[in-house]
Write a structure and sequence with these properties.
Shape: globular
Helix content: 40-55%
Mean pLDDT: 97
Largest sheet: 7 strands, parallel
Order of helices and strands: EHEHEHEHEHEHEHEHHHHEEEHHHHHH
Function: Catalyzes the NADPH-dependent rearrangement and reduction of 1-deoxy-D-xylulose-5-phosphate (DXP) to 2-C-methyl-D-erythritol 4-phosphate (MEP).
Number of helices: 17
Strand content: 15-25%
Pathway: Isoprenoid biosynthesis; isopentenyl diphosphate biosynthesis via DXP pathway; isopentenyl diphosphate from 1-deoxy-D-xylulose 5-phosphate: step 1/6
Bound molecules: nicotinamide-adenine-dinucleotide, magnesium ion
Protein name: 1-deoxy-D-xylulose 5-phosphate reductoisomerase
Pfam family, one: DXP_reductoisom
GO molecular function: 1-deoxy-D-xylulose-5-phosphate reductoisomerase activity
Amino acid sequence: MKKLSILGATGSIGKSTLDLVERSPEDFEVVALTAASNVAALADAARRTSAKLAVIADGGRLQDLDDALRGSGCRTAAGQEGLVEAATGEAELVMAAIVGCAGLMPTMAAVEAGKTVALANKEALVTAGALMTEAAARHNATLLPVDSEHNAIFQCLAGSSSNHVARIILTASGGPFLSTTAEQMRSVTPAQAVAHPKWTMGAKISVDSATLMNKGLELIEAHYLFGLPSERIDVLVHPQSVVHSLVEFVDGSVLAQLGSPDMRIPIAHALAWPERIATPAQRLDLAAIARLDFEAPDLERFPALRLAREALEAGGSAPIVLNAANEVAVASFLDGRIPFPDIARLVESALEGNRRNGPSSLRDVIEIDGEVRGAVSMQIEERCV
Ligand code: NAD
Ligand code: MG
């Protein structure tokens, strides 16, 4: 039985994780669950799984959480301290599934406590990749990729030496606007952007999939997880989302991992690793799918992917700036305050003006992140008046 903590238990990844855990109660003991502010969903999940600790990030909701869990035997906590407690307490395995840079502190705390970390929170690795992989090595923590592409690569690598790897190829569904013209993109709505053709996900990552920033963040994520330079990480658009990524070895062999587009497959892999557990995911019927298509990404229509590669290659603080500007821009787009193409424009202008040094500590990352958020928010504010 593994003692499991789920950071971001009320989100898309969190709920899929809970679904698997509740199907295999003999394999997992839930020690802690966290959420941003949804008290009802958090309390319900805590009762169902007999969690020992429930943490609400929004301190103003702690009283409500106490009320909701009265008599359940589940302890409650709030704020960053509570999140860190959930990440570092008695859990052996921590599912890091908070969205955005908000997940950085607790995810890093889990790594520094030497936990096995199932990592969905890609923004944590994008903003603090070098610090996090160094801390993992120092504290003997294991990072298991949950993102479907990185989980696919992890499975294909199966412990191969990195000097046997020629390159890795991340597949991208292309999102809802794969065949939308640049002209049409000016007037797409948040509802159209979050309606992903293949995956059901949280709102932020759905917009990232529509701009292809998600693939850009994944490029940076792959760099840190697998220690490969930008020129050995390729991106290939594959609209069916059946091939989740590929690894090409020096001898020309290419291995791919396939499966139906259901996040419960990579989540189950990370939860059970090095074993496997059953999932209810639909089995792949290749005869019914009949064909698999691949094409190169269009960097003109999807500049976010180009910007992410440039940020990876620039290094230093650039990935933090890219991520922070993107988080603010995506939130503004979802609020209906800026048009879709402005997301990449705001990111580009934040990167152009960046003269900040690379981070040498988590505190630096948080400081740069805060600064960029402030600057981009102000820029949006000025445009809107
Ligand atoms: P989501 O929006 O559905 O859920 C986010 C979770 O984080 C919720 O539980 C929410 O309460 C919590 N949260 C949000 N802001 C917080 C804050 N400030 N402090 C504490 N907790 C906070 O997001 P998701 O789609 O589940 O994605 C989670 C992470 O996994 C993201 O980093 C995303 O990129 C990554 N990911 C998701 C998918 C997917 O299929 N959804 C696939 C690959 C990777
Ligand atoms: Mg992915």
